[in-house]
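U., I forgot to send this yesterday:
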Amino acid sequence: MNFSLRQRSYVAGVVVSAAGISAIGLFLAGGATAQTASPAARIASSAENDRVVTLRGNVHPMAQPGNDRGQSQPSKTIEGKTPPHDDR
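Result:
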């Protein structure tokens, strides 16, 4: 069979369109299942205060008693920081 250039272009366009629609369908179907699955719990139990340890090397080198300047003035503001909350 000899197809004209116009017929070959049409057939190629239909094949590309069908492939694109199939790819979109697969993408949407995969996204729908990902939304329904809940992640596995990663926290196995509550923290126990009698079983805490201090990790060595996770304190900034400048956080030393010799670098302590004492308490700051109550009027001093620190921009971009949130004060700690006492949730007791």
